[in-house]
Amino acid sequence: MVRELERRCQGLPYSRVQGWVNNIHEWMAAADLLLSKPGASTVNEAINAGLPLVALDPLPGNERRLCDCIEKWQVGCWARKTEDISAILNRLLSSPEDCRRLRQNAQAMARPRAAHHAAEAILDDLCLTRGRQI
User: Fold this and answer.
1) Cβ-based neighbour number of residue 78 at 10 Å
2) CA 6 to CA 104: how far, in whole Å?
3) Is the dihedral of CA 45, 47, 53, 56 positive or negative?
4) Do 85 and 15 touch, CB atoms closer than 8 A?
5) pLDDT at 132
6) pTM of this prediction?
7) pLDDT, tens digit, for every residue of 80-119?
8) Domains delineated in the chain
9) CA distance 70 to 36
């Protein structure tokens, strides 16, 4: 799929096709919109970055359910068919208000420090438990 997207985006000045990257958080911080498969980590990263997401080609099961959630939560769109991608991208990129609304919805759901808060809660619980045992 990367090769096909590269071919189709060749010569488009504001498009960049990437395969796997190790600095996805930096790409998301710089992006206006994310077009991606809806893996759980990708969806979480996009929401925490306040990045509107256009999901495509979900696997059956969890990814398919995430597509429903993306639309229910109004943090992005699901391109159900490959032919839908262009129209969705054009609509979103030509409508700053739609993108702003999706971004605001994502930011309202974002929990970028969730792992930190969970670790603190676990450590607090461990300290309390140990304190009772002494």
Assistant:
1) 19
2) 30
3) positive
4) no
5) 57
6) 0.75
7) 999 999 999 999 989 999 999 999 999 999 887 888 888 9
8) 2-133 (3.40.50.2000)
9) 12
Answer whether 78's CB lies under 8 Å from 55's CB: yes
Per-residue pLDDT tens over the stretch 64-76: 999 999 999 999 9
Please name every residue paired with 35 in a beta bridge, in sequence order, or none if there are none: 54
One-letter amino acid at 29 equals A
Provide DSSP, the chain: -HHHHHHHHTT-TT-----S-S-HHHHHHH-S-EEE---HHHHHHHHHTT--EEEESPPTTHHHHHHHHHHHTTSEEEE-SGGGHHHHHHHHHT-HHHHHHHHHHHHHH--TTHHHHHHHHHHHHHHHHHHHH-
CA distances from 125 to 74, 116, 131 (A): 35, 14, 10
Tokens of residue 128, six digits: 């309390």
CA–CA separation, 130 vs 50, rounded Å? 39
